[in-house]
What does this fold into?
Amino acid sequence: MKEFLNFVIQKIKVDRRLLVIYCLVYFLWGLGMNWFGAQVEIAKFTFWWQVISCYILYMVPISLALRGLPFHAQYAYGLVAMGLLEFGGYALGTSYAYPNNILDQFFNVRNFSLGMALFFALYFPLGNWGVGKIYKMLFGKN
It folds into this structure.
């Protein structure tokens, strides 16, 4: 366990400018997805500020820890992380799934959280790629 914690601490020690970009991108991404999910009545957070706890405090450190791994590894580890988040959110009622939403209709209600986890696990490799591009464009670094 100590080895794992040391690994994570090393991975999240990054340039503060990079960390700010991660937080801004993920915060805006989270607000947008929460808005979209509510507009099309798929799912939403119970409170808007959960974007901060989920996207910034949970997903940004995980993204940093996964940064540099191959796409498939980021997705696989991200799937575990998102599976736990989705399960917890719906089990605790901090996330709300609209009844009979389009995903329920397409996959059925029993597969809703799994579908959400499979989709949102893409955030880690795509987020790392996008933030890396923005950082390189702004500061000329990787």
User: Anything to note?
Assistant: The longest helix spans residues 16-39.
